Automatic annotation (TrEMBL):
<keyword id="KW-0175">Coiled coil</keyword>
<feature type="coiled-coil region">
    <location>
        <begin position="237"/>
        <end position="328"/>
    </location>
</feature>
<feature type="coiled-coil region">
    <location>
        <begin position="484"/>
        <end position="560"/>
    </location>
</feature>
<dbReference type="GO" id="GO:0060271">
    <property type="term" value="P:cilium assembly"/>
</dbReference>
<feature type="coiled-coil region">
    <location>
        <begin position="107"/>
        <end position="197"/>
    </location>
</feature>
<dbReference type="GO" id="GO:0005814">
    <property type="term" value="C:centriole"/>
</dbReference>
<feature type="coiled-coil region">
    <location>
        <begin position="377"/>
        <end position="425"/>
    </location>
</feature>
<dbReference type="InterPro" id="IPR038911">
    <property type="entry name" value="SCLT1"/>
</dbReference>
<dbReference type="GO" id="GO:0045162">
    <property type="term" value="P:clustering of voltage-gated sodium channels"/>
</dbReference>
<protein>
    <submittedName>
        <fullName>Sodium channel and clathrin linker 1</fullName>
    </submittedName>
</protein>
Length: 565
């Protein structure tokens, strides 16, 4: 049913509805004189409905008149379109044949574009995965940095607590450790020189392997030509296989020797590192223990020095009082006071003797600690000598391996000579193969003539099949149109997905940039903590210098006490 006819039916139904409403309003009960308030409201509502219906009816009448005039115009246009359609059908029949090929090309291009879009989508997903993985790595790095900062803060607090317990003995032990580290550096430099020599040998071995591979490729090409052309190459192939087996055996032996050298170097390096770390740990533990003991002894010395100073002050006071008594020449009642002062002097001398004994005991302890440290240094030196002996043994093993390499190189030279002999034999075989190839080319020319005849027959059959293909193409046009629409929809969907993925990727990039900025700030804070640590170290060195000065003052005070006694 056309739209004009449907509009006519709608207009007729609205006219009937208007007539029914007029009859309803004319015969309505609210026309009577006695009307209640509720009926008046219903009447007002009904009048409003009637007015809206009348307005809608007028609008529909105008629309009906317009559609009638438009229908006449459409009829004239329809006739013109029929004429044009007949002309276009004739033209489309000619155009279809030309457009079919274009449609096939477009379909293939769209399929390739779809494949490219799939590949781009896969790449975008892979980039997103890598971005997420990188973000996870950055978060882990930030956590590690925060943990390191926390540890550094704890270390700084510990260092501030230990600054009061520093002295010259620690400096002597540090010099001993620096000497051990210098020796360790010398051994590591020797190991690095040995590694450089090993890399040189490995590079030479790689060049030799590359040459062997080129020789093998040439052999395989010669074998392929000989197998296709002549049976005489079988003997040469057997000889070459034997040579290849021997060469593979040599290469395997070289690889085994190289792996053994690497293992020896790794074992020696691991042993030296472990032993040096053990020695360093033991020395650090002993240093810490000695520092604690020395701090305790220093505290005891300070207490004893304070007691000595107090006793000296009391002795001086007693002597002054005695002098006053002798000068004033008092009577016998003052003898008791003199005896008390004399007793105080004796007590002070006794305390002085006790202090001297305690100082001697502390000095003996310090000497004993020096002896222990010298023994520990001698033991470390013996350990370093043993490590040097193990390194010399590893060098001897490397010299033996280098001799084996020279022997293998000589064998490889002999194999190359054999390969040259085999090449000469293959050249002779190639000459014979060329003659056979010329004969085969003549046979191929005869076969080509027969194939030309068959091609002509196939062309005639293809002409008949093209007409069938044109019919198939007309049927496929509709399907291609449908495929185009589906492809467009899929492309739009993929574009939206790609846009979403790009947005997500940009967000991830922004997040990674923020994490990088945060990591830079963390690095700056770490540098600040390192600077503070250096300042604390400088403070500890200043405190050590002050402590040495205090020790010198204590020694001078003890000497003065001995002199006065």
């Amino acid at each position: 049913m056309s739209p004009a006819v449907s509009q006519r039916f709608q207009c007729m139904s609205l006219l009937n509805a208007q007539r029914c409403l007029e009859v309803f309003f004319l015969s309505a009960p609210w026309k009577k004189p006695r009307i209640s308030s509720g009926c008046q409201d219903e009447r007002v509502q009904a009048m409003e409905l009637w007015q809206t219906a009348a307005q809608e009816l007028d609008r529909l009448q105008h629309l009906y008149q317009r559609t009638v005039s438009d229908g006449q115009v459409h009829d004239a246009q329809r006739q013109q379109l029929k004429v044009q359609f007949s002309n276009t059908n004739i033209q489309s029949h000619h155009i279809r044949t030309s457009t079919n090929q274009h449609l096939l090309k477009t379909v293939t291009e769209q399929s390739t574009e779809m494949e490219e879009l799939h590949s781009q989508l896969g790449q975008a997903k892979a980039e997103l995965r890598t971005a997420t993985a990188r973000v996870d790595e950055m978060t882990k790095l930030l956590q590690n940095v925060q943990n390191q900062m926390h540890r550094q803060e704890e270390d700084v607090a510990d260092a501030q607590g230990r600054e009061d317990a520093a002295d010259r003995r620690i400096q002597q032990l540090q010099t001993g450790l620096s000497q051990l580290e210098a020796r360790l550096k010398a051994t590591s430099q020797e190991a690095e020189s040995f590694r450089r020599e090993q890399t040189v040998w490995e590079r030479k071995l790689g060049e030799f392997q590359a040459r062997c591979t080129t020789v093998e490729e040439e052999k395989y090409e010669a074998l392929a030509k000989v197998r296709e052309s002549v049976q005489l190459a079988e003997e040469a192939a057997l000889q070459k296989d034997q040579a290849l087996l021997r060469e593979k055996q040599r290469i395997e032996e070289l690889e085994n020797a190289k792996e053994a050298i690497k293992q020896l170097i790794q074992d020696a390096a691991l042993r030296t590192r472990k032993e040096v770390e053990n020695v360093r740990k033991q020395c650090n533990a002993q240093i810490h223990r000695m520092a604690e003991e020395l701090s305790a002894l220093q505290l005891e010395c300070a207490d004893k020095e304070s007691q000595i100073e107090r006793s000296l002050r009391e002795r001086k006071a007693a002597e002054e009082e005695l002098e006053k008594v002798y000068k004033e020449g008092r009577a016998e009642p003052e003898f008791r006071k003199i005896d008390a002062l004399h007793q105080r002097c004796l007590n002070a001398e006794r305390m002085k003797e006790d202090m001297r004994l305690t100082l001697q005991s502390t000095q003996n302890k310090v000497k004993k600690m020096d002896m222990d440290h010298s023994e520990e240094l001698s033991r470390c030196q013996e350990e370093v000598r043993r490590l040097q002996g193990s390194l010399a043994q590893a060098r001897d093993n490397c010299v033996g391996v280098s001799d084996e390499r020279l022997h293998l190189q000589q064998e490889n030279l002999q194999l190359r000579r054999e390969m040259d002999d085999l090449r000469k034999a293959t050249l002779l075989v190639q000459k014979k193969a060329k003659q056979q190839v010329s004969q085969m080319e003549h046979e191929y020319s005869l076969k080509e003539q027969g194939l030309d005849v068959r091609v002509r027959e196939l062309e005639e059959s293809s002409r008949g099949s093209t007409s069938d293909l044109t019919r198939l193409l007309t049927a496929q046009q509709k399907s291609t149109q449908r495929w185009k629409e589906e492809a467009k929809n899929m492309v739009q969907a993929f574009e939206t997905k790609i846009a979403g993925l790009k947005v997500e990727l940009n967000r991830q990039k922004q997040r990674s940039h923020e994490l990088e900025m945060q990591l830079e700030t963390d690095h700056n804070t770490i540098a600040e903590y390192e600077r503070q640590l250096t300042e604390h170290q400088e403070k500890s060195s200043r405190l050590q210098r002050r402590l040495t000065q205090v020790e010198q003052r204590a020694t001078t005070a003890t000497q003065q006490v001995w002199v006065t006694s």
